[in-house]
Amino acid sequence: KAGVTQTPRYLIKTRGQQVTLSCSPISGHRSVSWYQQTPGQGLQFLFEYFSETQRNKGNFPGRFSGRQFSNSRSEMNVSTLELGDSALYLCASYLTDRDSTEAFFGQGTRLTVV
Amino acid sequence: KQEVTQIPAALSVPEGENLVLNCSFTDSAIYNLQWFRQDPGKGLTSLLLIQSSQREQTSGRLNASLDKSSGRSTLYIAASQPGDSATYLCSTDSWGKLQFGAGTQVVVTP
Fold first, then answer.
1. N or C: which end of chain A has fewer CB within 10 A?
2. Is the pLDDT confidence value at A1 over 70?
3. Lowest mean pLDDT among A15-19, A47-51, A86-90
4. What is the predicted pLDDT for the residue at A36?
5. CA distance A61 to A65
6. Which of these, B97, B44, B93, lies nearest to B66 by C-alpha position?
7. Is B46 in Cβ contact with A103 (below 8 Å)?
8. How many CB pairs under 8 A join A and B?
9. By CA distance, what is B34's nearest residue in A?
10. For residues A26 and A1, what is the distance between their CA atoms, to the nearest angstrom?
């Protein structure tokens, strides 16, 4: 059974550019969440999607956005990149919504903004 | 707002010694508590999930306990091995939003 797949694994972008990251959840999982991990702030919640609807959002500026498609794959977009956006972006998938269930994470996308 | 704290921040033990990692949280209204392992530059690997109604979970050399009333969880790793060297993170789940501690960096020396 395939795990959570995140693409690309590594990205280097210039300040001011925009970037799109992709996450394919485990087959059958309908909920996807995104997290940002930095050495200074640790793991921080970005947003959660279930059945193409955003149900929960963290405290990030509007430059961070996401969406989920009908096949549960999710993308997150960061516009007008800043140096501080350099981080490991992690995606997690869940089997069901709101039940007490296990989160499975992908390997992450390492974004470097120069 | 949920605050999750992990103590100690770092731990170094000789091979064969048992590991005890602590996690505390401020809001007991959680769905579950999950322990993860993270190797440098990698994603998170789920180790154990404890449902809010459970007191502990075991998998091989790993055992995790949960005391919601006191806001604490402990991860025990028996007979540590060099391959156990990693950062261990605990997280609480409230309505699909995971709140993580800063992690405990573990080094097991041969």
1. N
2. no
3. A47-51
4. 98
5. 9
6. B93
7. yes
8. 65
9. A102
10. 8
> Are B44 and A48 in contact (CB < 8 Å)?
no
The structure tokens 């903004």 sit at A113
Contacts of A45 (CB under 8 A, 6+ apart): A33, A34, A35, A56, A58, B97, B98, B99
Contact (CB<8Å) B43/A31: no
Residue of B43, B46, B95 with shortest CB distance to A56? B95
B43 with A90: Cβ contact below 8 A: yes
Contacts of A40 (CB under 8 A, 6+ apart): none
Helix (H) or strand (E) holding B86: strand B86-94
A87 min Cα distance to partner chain B (Å): 11
Overall size of chain B counted in residues: 110
Mutate to test the interface with B, among A33, A100, A110, A112 (most CBs of B within 10 A): A100
Per-residue pLDDT of chain B (110 residues; tens, 9 = 90+): 889 999 999 999 999 999 999 999 999 888 899 999 999 989 999 999 998 889 999 999 999 999 999 999 999 999 999 999 999 999 998 766 899 999 999 999 99
Q: What residues contact A112, with CB distance under 8 A and at least 6 apart?
A: A10, A11, A12, A13, A86
B50's CB contacts (< 8 A; 6+ apart) are B32, B33, B34, B56, B57, B64, B65, B66, B73
